[in-house]
Amino acid sequence: MYKYVLKRLLLLIPIMIAVSFIVYFFIDLAPGDIVDVIAGQQVSVEEKELMREEMGLNDPLIIRYFRYMGGLLRGDLGISYVTNRDVFGVYISRLPATLQLAIASTLISLIIGIPLGINASVHQNSWIDSSSTILGLIGISIPIFWLGLMMILLFALKLGWFPSIGNDEPLSIILPAITVGSGQAALILRTTRSSMLEVIRQDYLRTARAKGVAEKLVILKHAFKNALIPILTVIGTQFGVSLGGAVVTETIFAWPGIGRLMVDSINNRDNQMLTGAIILTTMLSSIVILMIDLAYSFVDPRIKARYSK
Amino acid sequence: MEKDKINYETSESVSQKYKKRSQLAEIWHNFKKNKGAVIGLILLVTIIVVAIIANSTIDYNKIIKHDVTLRLKSPSLEHPFGTDQYGRDIYLRILYGARYSLSIGFAAVFVSLAIGGVLGIIAGYYGGSIENIIMRICDVFSSIPSLLLAISVSTAFGAGTFVLMFSVGLVSVPAFARVARASVMTVVDSEFIEAARAAGATKSRIMFTHILPNSFAPIIVQATMRVGSAITMASSLSFLGLGIPAPAPEWGGILSESRSFIRDYSYMTLFPGLAIVITVLSINLIGDGLRDAMDPKLKR
């Protein structure tokens, strides 16, 4: 078992190296010259060339990349040329806000998605089922940024129940968390329903009922527990995604997290910051997804048995 | 009497009565029974027709022309969805803009289908180290959160329609590769493939004329569902300023512009968003319908 965990962890390393190379490569392609940004118009062409040489910008991509990765291992992703701030430091300082939002939205999606999904599968083809199905479909069809704007319009501007932007008040998190959480809830609802439908007709459930197990226990303990793996996968992926994917929501609600940091970097053409933020976020979400993956290999005896040898 | 009659039916008339439907007819038969899917199909066809009519009748200059006298008019009979801060009619802009969302959604999925599908078929057919390399590359791309991957590509190549199609399409390549590989693996050991091989068919012929049609169902379902998410993602990128540049009336772009007016002119935000929701919803309804129609196991 531990061998399996170790193997999965080791497999992550080459993937992370490749991922960071791809991101570095893409953003390096972006038009615009850093030296022009720093030096401005006054500096002569020769001086600019000298600066490029000093900063190592003339080196081939692969050498610059390895220098960058060497820095990453020491927690040093360089200084942003636009804001003059330490990329890694800024990223770490933005992380708590994003984590808060990711946890809150995941909780909301679980509270809404799982009960509705279970209910729909238990009452398959009834009005409960079809209304949950419609709800789920609408949930995955609404673009998150529009939902966010509608939330602001209704609950902040018209009703005035919650603050619309920032994270200064404790209630501030509610609107952004619902915005991110509702799309996830729809996905979890759909996954829970279809995964429950797979197990709900199995013979062992009939056996459990025949033994006289209460219906509630049959559904929650016998059926749900066995339907859990696809649901956990979705939850894990969603949590991982919301670490970096709350880009749009954070922008709308002026939530000072990583997503907003990335959008600001795009707007300021701060590619140093953008590269660092995307690479770090990808690593973070990959680790979270791997952890969830490993978690259910511990929970599910079927998977455990397969890898215990 | 009725009973006797049935007994005397010739084998020919029986086989006519229970005529084997082709796979496509079977799917259509199941699809028709799904109310939601039919509604989705009608909606989508309507949207496509409206987009075509709008693009051939509405003058693009009228869509982007500023007219200060018409600034920020609330919805009325003359301007059903009101006008924006430049005096442009939002109703006409949304009708005209349907083409962007639709074409980007379908083109992006075409990109991911073409790249991912081919990679998946090759991986599933050859197996071994070729499969390993292809699938590891897919792992790499799928471990970057999708919006961030699209942002990286859009940053690299600048904003524009084609970049948007490609960057949104690239995001779904690994998903298509996995689905295609999995469905190829289920048929690759069948006898008819062996027969084709024995008859001397080339590898590419086996892959594309024998395997591909037989692993179509899951790929089509995946493709349909991805059109919806591609439209949403493209409009998110436009919303962030990485999509089609203004003044083109792309829905995400219209929404982005309307943000500063949400307090007093909320109609500006409402309508373009509803347009996206209805379009994506109709596609997802079709996708769900196709999934159920192609996978009778789920119905039971």
Structural description of this entry:
Chain A has 309 residues and is mainly alpha-helical. The radius of gyration of chain A is 24 Å and the shape is flat. Chain A has helices at 2-29, 34-39, 45-55, 61-73, 87-122, 127-141, 144-158, 174-199, 203-210, 215-226, 228-245, 247-252, 258-267, 271-299, 301-307. Chain A has 15 helices and no strands. Chain B is mainly α. Chain B has a single domain (27-64, 85-298), classed as Orthogonal Bundle (MetI-like fold). Helices cover 76% and strands 0% of the residues of chain B. Chain B contains 15 helices and no strands. In chain B, helix 7 crosses helix 9 and helix 12 runs parallel beside helix 13. Chain B starts with a helix and ends with a helix. The chains are: A mainly alpha (309), B mainly alpha (300).
Radius of gyration of chain B: 24 Å
Strand content of chain B: under 5%
Low-confidence stretches of chain A: none
Major beta sheet of chain A, specifics? none
Number of strands of chain A: 0
What distance separates the N and C termini of chain A?
Answer: 7 Å
Query: Main interface pair?
Result: A-B, 53 and 47 residues
Number of DSSP strand runs of chain B: 0
